[in-house]
Amino acid sequence: MEGRVVYVAGDNVVTSLGFTTGDNADQIIAERTGIKYYEDASVYPEPFMASRIDDAELSSHTLWNELSDYHRLEKMMILSASDAIERSGVDASSPRTIFIFSSTKGNIDLLAGSSSLHPDAELAEMASRVSRFFHSGNKPYVISNACISGVLAVMLGQRLLKSGLYDHAILVGGDMVTEFVVSGFMSFKSVSPNPCKPYDKDRDGLSMGEGAATMVLTADKSLIGDARPIMVAGGASSNDANHISGPSRTGYELNLAIRSAMQEAGLEPSQIDLVDMHGTATVYNDEMESKALDLAGLASRPLLSLKGYFGHTLGASGLIESVLCVESMRRQMQYRTLGYAELGVPVQVNVTTETKPARMNNILKTASGFGGCNAAVIFSTESEGHRNYTIGKGKVTHECVVSDKTIKVDGKVVFDGSSTEDYGAFIRAAFKAVSEPYMKFSKMDDLCKLGVTAVEHLLQGLNLRDRYKEEEVAMLLANRYSSLETDCNHQRIIDDRACYQPSPAVFVYTLANIVMGEICIRHKFKGENLFLIDGKLDKERMLQLASLSIASGTVKAVLTGWVDFFGDDYAAHIFLVEE
Amino acid sequence: MEELISNLKVQLVESLNLEDVTPADIDTEAPLFGDGGLGLDSIDALEIIILLEKHYGLHIADPKEGKDIFYSVRTLAEYITANQK
């Protein structure tokens, strides 16, 4: 719909630093960190540094006693959302209000020591439990797209409101410091023994953190009391098409997302008052970000990482940090990048070293994550964004269905694997039938093999990469079980205390969006990325989202649909949507 | 040394999931990483660190240390021989 403007109506942050946006900002302005030293064998056999929320403090909250039926992460999310909703004045139960969740692992603590899958370990179940608490009748959107999930929630919320599908969006993000994630990041040797030092010459890894955040967006200006309201002016995402865990060597793809978001906002680099990047303090992430900033013409703009205050909060980080950027716009304050002392990235960037009053009218927030994904959004008091998101652009030109050892493209059987012994033999034979040997295939988990094989068959003879530029092809997939098959494998490994050997080659596949990363690497697709969790394939919703991608003007073809694997069940149904 | 080399090849195929490669296919002198050799990547390097701990009791704390050690099966075998107690 034309002329719709998306405003930030209310927000909240729950971290070790405090349980409101204001409390968190006060602690940041006082330059205090929530990252501490822990000896807790229930999380990791050796001492570690992390930012963790004290449950005793959390339980002093007035709502706490009403939440005994909820799991820990759900409580964090409900406490966060109830505060933000109250501040916003938005009716959470209205049919015009949609919940959007962002989390990488959800209630992953329910997996520990359990032989059967707890139903609430499914992300869609967690999301509906939380949205039902607020009497929402709409099926929520659930984004599980590694560490860019929170930024994607802002982008998706803006598009859904601009399109006119809804009037208000409640974005809720959350992730926890659990044995599951700590053991995995430790196996990647990416956790620092000290509080993290973003962009610093001595940086040696990230600090784990946990938290929840909520941002309420509205297209109803009457709810906004502020004379200078903060708007979501732009948003975009991209894929490196390079490696499933290592970031791009050039930063080109993050730069693509930044440029697209700035184009939507109609802002020049000189108008960006602050860039708040992912800044995890791993050697390669920070290096990549500095290159991307340079390519986007932003190397001289003030650069912030908030990770030194509450660590890397995974799928919540994009939302927590977005809310704190919005708060810095309200206060017209620049935050210091805690942990940073001396420049240690290859490009001369302008990392913030002081907490001080500063003009904050346009802030660019970015994130990058496993699976090669990147995202960027812009918050502004000056620009309302210049794209019209219209539903209905693009149509399905081809589709591929994989089920019962059979692959069909456009209704015709293209591979019959009924004689193969099991799923493993079927999917290997199906892939080999249409592809030359590909070293990476045998290393993939079952979910990735399914998605990669379905797309391989779907794209046979279509020469997609001859017809579209690499950044014009987007990926937008959904499933029910996220990466739970591989999650259970990782959990089995860490439950075995006698032979404790977490495997990075297993852990890297404990994110559902890795399947899109593998497809992007295989076909050099660098366009938008979004992975959703849903109870079952919702074709109408996926095609709506594909049309919103095309409406952005940067995307001309979208691979969308379903790819799911758990236990003995698997199914893929992928559509090619073209402009 | 030759026995160690052939054991290492079996362990590499197993722990790195090299489905289409047999131990006999691995050239003892060829680079394991990058183009031209086995084409291993950073995740494989971390798995090799685990392999060295599990089978040989050797600890490499910093993956960067591994760069020269992990060049080929030969350099890996030489490192194990020199460092195993």
Notes on the structure:
The complex is a heterodimer of chains A (579) and B (85). By secondary structure, chain A is of the alpha/beta class. Chain A has two domains: 7-380, Peroxisomal Thiolase, Chain A, domain 1 (3-Layer(aba) Sandwich); 395-578, Peroxisomal Thiolase, Chain A, domain 1 (3-Layer(aba) Sandwich), CATH 3.40.47.10. Chain A contains 17 helices and 23 strands. Chain A has helices spanning 21-29, 55-58, 72-88, 123-133, 149-162, 179-187, 252-265, 283-295, 307-310, 317-331, 423-432, 446-458, 464-467, 484-495, 504-507, 514-523, 539-551; strands spanning 7-14, 35-38, 48-51, 97-102, 141-143, 168-175, 208-209, 211-218, 231-239, 274-276, 302-304, 333-334, 350-351, 356-357, 362-369, 373-380, 395-403, 406-409, 412-416, 473-479, 529-533, 557-566, 569-578. In chain A, strands 1-8-6-4-5-21-20-22-23-17-18-19 form a twelve-stranded mixed β-sheet, sandwiched between helices. A six-stranded mixed β-sheet of chain A has the order 9-16-15-10-11-13, sandwiched between helices. In chain A, strand 17 and strand 18 form a beta hairpin. The longest helix of chain A has 17 residues, at 72-88. The radius of gyration of chain A is 22 Å and the shape is globular. The two termini of chain A are 19 Å apart. The relative contact order of chain A is 0.14. By secondary structure, chain B is an all-alpha fold. Chain B has a single domain, classed as Non-ribosomal Peptide Synthetase Peptidyl Carrier Protein, Chain A (Orthogonal Bundle). Chain B has helices at residues 2-15, 42-56, 66-69, 73-83. Chain A binds chain B through residues 187-189, 243-246, 428, 437, 439, 441-443, 501, 503-505, 508, and chain B through 16-20, 38-39, 41-44, 46-47, 49-50, 53-54, 62-63.
